[in-house]
Amino acid sequence: MTILAKALCFLSLLMFSGYALSGDKMAGETRYKETCINCHGPAGKGAASYPKISGNEVSYTKSKLEAYRDGIKQGPNSSLMFMFAEALTDGEIANLAAYLKDAKYNEN
Amino acid sequence: MMSSSGRFLSIVMAFAVMLGLSFNAQGAGHGGMDVPKIKSSVLLKGLESPWDMAFLPDGTMFFTEKCKGLSVRTKGGSVNALYGMKGSKGYPDSGSDLFCDGQAGMLGVVADMNFAKNRVLYVYSTSTKYHGSGCKTNFEKCDGNIVMKFNVSGNLKSVSNRTDIVKDIQYKPFESNQPFGGPGAHNGGRIRIGPGGFLWVAGGDRHRGICPQDGKLLCGKVLRIDGDGNAHPGNNPPEGFDKRIYTYGHRNVQGIDFRPSDGRAFTAEHGPWHNDEITGLINGGNAGWDPAEKRGGRGACPDKYCGYEPNQKKGMDPAVRAAYTPMSDTRFKDLMPSAWNNNGFSQGTGSAAFLKGGNWGIYEGRLAVGIMGIAFGDTPAGSRIDMISITPDGLGINNIVRMPLGFSKRFRGLVMGPDNALYVAVDAGEIYRVTAE
Predict the structure, then answer these.
(1) What global pTM score does this model have?
(2) What confidence tens digit (pLDDT) does each residue in B363-388 have?
(3) Topology (CATH level 3) of domain A23-102
(4) Are B277 and B342 in contact (CB under 8 A)?
């Protein structure tokens, strides 16, 4: 393999791994509106007894969702989250985390 | 093949279109129907979990925020904070005993029928003041929800003379082994003034299995009391029950209002993954909720509460759950049958108000029901406001029309205003004014 080909491979790897790590905000928003919004409210601002989940670092949200998906209890209402998280793929978790990091609620 | 009359109509229509004439979209026979145009606008925004509102005849609106406290929007539009929860900022006065946790906090608010003379306002909240030694576990009495009575100053800038007229509605102090297992579950919390000026207080079962059917505990009950907290003399609960009880056997009543045509009370209850219910109340009646273990053919349940069983940690057919722990259990001879059960679904019925005023046209007299939207298992979220036509006997419905708002949010509190508009609090932080013209 030439140096140029190796460099291209390396760059591609960087690009795709970066994409996977940062997630797709738009896809995350779409997924959020399918189920999460019903409890956590618009843009993850929290609603009633359901906590605010926006504004956190991507790594934090990812680790939380992965833990729920693995059935690890993280609070008194964890069993609700187990049900929703068990269906999430790695990509969906990354997308949700990316969306929620900067999600802002516009009440209008 | 088109008939000759059909061809004639087509030709007329074509000429009409060429001439720019417009046609009404309504079909034949609907021309006389008084279908109002429904619009909504944001009255207040940026609130934290607004829960309930109460109006004075001039449009002054008191409102609660679950974890902050009581405020008032004057008829001029300015907002004054009045009485805060412990730790709340910006309130001229607060209760060091008032707190919020989970579903609990400052909930219902209503003005006395004679407010113009006595300036009395009632507020429902969670409080530590009467815990005593009864809150060491989830299986004790634990008095933690109260109804307070205040006097509101003439300038609407303060409240005074707090008197706790109900001190012994139960509260859930600790986490339990349930899907919504956090402390503070199922407080009911809606309060309203009914016919004759009596105060109605709607409660919840606080995740304690024995609550709804126990005549000495106020959890899972609807109370009818006077302004000092005394039982209405006409209450007719079963022998040995607390006389403040109007009805019992409830799960979590967050909606109560009185039908304009006959004054009958109707409640809206949030179901346990099945059967949200609207129920016409009967004095002394049983709504039929009994989540206690080892009853109705059931065995032991997690933390002695069968409210989400069977298989409470997984989605399943709501009808199977309904058969195991029914919302309206027909083994009770004094059962008040529900008028509506949301097609067997639980989507989070939060509040209800009868639509009053001719401006509501064909919807006048219907019960507007706020549904917050909760999607577990295969249940669709269903966040919406339904306008339900209830039959005169209160045992069924004629039909349901979804209110055409153009948006869906968690509709928590519904109250009619003095202007015959419907005011709607949503968990996201707004209070909407919904008009019909």
Answers:
(1) 0.90
(2) 999 999 999 988 777 788 889 999 99
(3) Cytochrome Bc1 Complex; Chain D, domain 2 (1.10.760)
(4) yes
